[in-house]
Amino acid sequence: MGRILSWMSKPDSGIPDSSWAGFLDLMAALTALVILVTVVITILCYTSAAGRRKVYVPDDLFASYTPMRWILLAIPAALVAGGLCFWQYEGALDSTEGRWGGALQIALLNGLVSAIIAYLFIILVPRFTPAKFRYRPAPYLHKKKAARA
Amino acid sequence: MTTLICAGGSGTRVLEAVLHLCAAGLGPSDLRTFVIDPDGSNGNVDKTRKLVNRYQECHEAFKTDGHPFFRTKIDLLKSAQGLRVWSPVDKTQKFKSLLNYSDLSPAQKDVVHLLLTESELEMPMNVGFRGHPALGAAALALLPLYKQDPLWSQFAQAITSEVNEREARVVIVGSVFGGTGASTIHPLVRYLRSLPQINKDKLKVGAVALVPYFRFSASEAAAEGGTALAEEAAKSEWFALASRSAAEYYEHLRTQDDWDFDAMYWLGDDTPLRVDYCIGGPQQDNPAHFVDLLAACACLDFSASPPTAKACYYSGPEEAGDVPDGNVLSWDDIPMSALDRDIVQERLHRFQLVGAAHLGFYGPLLRDPRLGADPHCVPWYFDRFAGASAELSSKENQDRVESLSVYFRENYFPWWDQIHSTEHDRMRLLNRTAWLDGNGKPLQIQMNRLGNLLYPDAVARRGFNPVDKLFDGVVRSAAGVAGTTNPSATYLAMLSQAAAELVEQENSGSIKRGA
């Protein structure tokens, strides 16, 4: 499983390969779990927020589409993943060399991948977005037609 | 085809009601109509003439199979000037000249003096018969002499050719307590019976006879206005007597087997509404009354399926214990036999919802410049109208949508408001607070009453959720509504379909109204 993080370079040549592989396995599992949980929570929160959003006056149609903000859950997810990485680093590798860099990479990976996967689900699965807002998550996809209007 | 002949001011107001019901999709596919009124300049005629023009604009703009509204085609007998108003008298003449009085023999003059007073003979005909049916009856008895008149010749030709193919239905409506209506109904039905030479039984004639439902005080008005009261002016004190005489006359016709009507509907209200007195002319613009609505329903009921019993039908609102000295009118009180009560209520409810939603939400939305910049924010608009060859935002379609707005704003809702403005809490059809502003003045649509458009105004039924539900419905209908003649008609079809769903949900009680 650690192969998915094979692009990460070992920061200290003194770290045994087996320890590094074990650490990558741990981080990969952590990443998968964090991304899964983040995506599920994001979609649940998004669906709930979009479903609760009502159209009472015309202004409601043109107001900011705030349910998309739930994608920002990727930020705390990134912090959690980065923090766990930072916390586990020394215990797993007996070294603090490259701890900040590793934690940062894991954080970025978790944050970006969580956000992208959640966003793709939102724009590709129609049932997550109420029909009345169906063009709001990805307005750029409809620019061409909108420009003709 | 159904022909509606409206006699006098009351008849003209019934035409107004019929047009609103036709707009709501309750009318026949074709309706031929004209007005008989010697006072063609009166305010009610002028208002109805404008309404006919506006209805026709809406009919042209929105006729489609996609929704029932404005589907009735109005035939004005090839009139380029809109609603035709025929007068049996010349405005400039006095009544005696209509009778050719100066050329009558002394014996004939004696008969005239036996039947008519000197003031009646000298009465100018500029504002009608002023509540004197004897004058009107004499004038209308001369109807066969007008065969060459363009209106009557076209009408006769239309009826004659129609009975050769199918049943021709004619409804005459007017008051029997005033001047024109009272004097028109019977002479006209006799004339109608003389028109077809063959297939006479295919001509079905109904009459809607209105008995008093409003009153005024001419003497009080004269005192307040400081003007002298003309002796020959109509007086509401005579209404009851005039109605009784009319009823006795028609009863006489029935007993003498001289009954030319396939049906006759008698409608009135024993708690008459007080209106401002006016002798005639542009100032005569009485407000709409629920009896107009009942009469319109009677017209459409006859049009849908004329009864075969050749009977009289009577209607008046049910007496209610909680309104002292007054009658109330609820949905169950509207008399109908051929029309389906549930369909009538559903159609009016739906049209009311469409009108409120259009004025309170969709009309302003379609004029919003943000819609042009971000059409994807409104999916039904984006799906059906953005980038299409005939855009809803084009000048032509904007004009059509505007004509709908004007109809609802200036005609439809004010008419219902007048109907519901009678004293006490008597009208129990629609929720009037849905279109009143904070000061109790029309017209400001209260969108939180969109789910409470029917009587009564209930706190539990208020809320904005129906606005959201309706929007959901319009989005759904965008996929299902077939293309129509123009984008405006498609828009109305979508709104109609969504409104129908919402009305059904409301009727089944499955809608939450809070928020």
Describe the structure.
The complex is a heterodimer of chains A (149) and B (515). With 149 residues, chain A is mainly alpha-helical. Chain A is 62% helix and 0% strand. The longest helix of chain A is centred in the first third of the chain and has 36 residues, at 17-52. The model of chain A has no long low-confidence stretch (mean pLDDT 92). Chain B is built from 17 helices and twelve strands. In chain B, the strands form three sheets. In chain B, strands 1, 2, 3, 4, 5, 6, 8 and 10 form an eight-stranded parallel β-sheet that branches. A two-stranded parallel sheet of chain B has the order 7-9. Chain B has a two-stranded parallel sheet with strand order 11-12. In chain B, strand 2, helix 2 (43-62) and strand 3 (73-75) form a beta-alpha-beta unit. Chain B is globular, with a radius of gyration of 24 Å. Chain B starts with a strand and ends in a 7-residue tail after the last helix. Chain A binds chain B through residues 54-58, 61-62, 130-136, 139, 142, 145-146, 148-149, and chain B through 361, 364-365, 368, 370, 372, 374-379, 382, 385-387, 391, 393, 447, 464-465, 467-468, 471-472, 475-476, 515.
Class per helix and strand makeup of chain A: mainly alpha
SS field, number of helical segments of chain A: 5
The greatest interface between two protein chains, and residues involved on each side, is:
A-B, 20 and 28 residues
The percent range for strand residues of chain B is: 5-15%
Radius of gyration of chain A: 20 Å
Q: What is the terminal separation of chain A in angstroms? A: 50 Å
Number of strands of chain B: 12
Q: Can you give the mean pLDDT of chain B? A: 87
Gross morphology of chain B: globular
Poorly predicted parts of chain B = none
**Percent helix of chain A:** 55-70%
Fraction of helical residues of chain B? 40-55%
- Cα-atom radius of gyration of chain B: 24 Å
Average of the residue pLDDT scores of chain A:
92
Shape of chain A: elongated
SSE arrangement of chain A, N to C:
HHHHH
Largest sheet of chain B: 8 strands, parallel
Would you tell me the structural class of the helices and strands of chain B?
alpha/beta
